[in-house]
Amino acid sequence: MAKNKINYKEIILDMLICTAGAFIYAVGVNCFVSPNELSSGGATGLAIIANYLWDFPIGTSMFVINIPLFIIAFFVFGWNFIVKTLFSTFMTSVCIDLGAMFLPQYEGDKLLAALFGGAIMGIGLGIVFTRGSTSGGTDIMGRLLKKALPHISMGRLVMICDLFVVLLAGVVYKNIESILYATIVFIVSSKSIDLVLYGSDSGKMMLIISDNADEIAKAITTETPRGVSILPCQGAYTGKAKHMLLSVVRPHEVAKMRKIVRRFDEHPFIIISDAAEILGLGFKPTDNDL
What we know:
Elements: H1 8-33, H2 42-54, H3 58-77, H4 79-102, H5 110-129, H6 138-148, H7 154-173, H8 176-197, E1 203-210, H9 213-223, E2 229-234, E3 241-249, H10 254-264, E4 269-275
Antiparallel strand pairs: 1-3, 1-4, 2-3
Helix pairs in contact: 1-4, 1-5, 2-3, 2-7, 3-4, 5-8, 6-7, 7-8, 9-10
């Protein structure tokens, strides 16, 4: 049975870890990406461009850019979706603006700046993702576009938004090398996020055995973009009939899935394994879909 009691310790832990991730992300932006006129995808990339053109603070610009997305997401997805993202985005904005006052800036080899900047930003975002939060920007935009374009995967929609920002940066800086280096930032950041979470595998397969399988399955299908199958099973020792849930998710979604399960069962039996290749809706298309 689900519990309605608020876990304040968990909330405080979420806030502390998200703040730590936001600060690490700010280090990548202030020390490597911004000083070398590089860009990244999403709202951060747009904020860096605004800083280059009009000297606006990067963190403040990033938060302002996200405000319309928060408003739209509130009406489309509800308050529960944006509350953590709102906090993480706010802390990221604060850390970037405060960090700009004292963090050292590396102005040298742009390749090194792209590699280290992308890696550090990815580590910071990965830490934020482990708490079931995001940094807003293209993640929200991708979810909104998914409503209008359900036949296109979330990953592709987010990538399209990020690539648009990268191309815009190249136009603003009037330098094609900016596009190439920004692409390196984007790729390295994405890989670092995967490594912080569960490695670079394309997905995770979750097997969940619980006495509250029906409630868990309903929550998964309503609160996440993933599907779930309910399989009958029987304990060999007890002989008791149970149900096992089977779901395949992206690595950054595992933390949220585990929280959903624990809302309904404090002592579930969960198996998480690598899924080297996933074909089907929401993942890699099958040959017939190409």
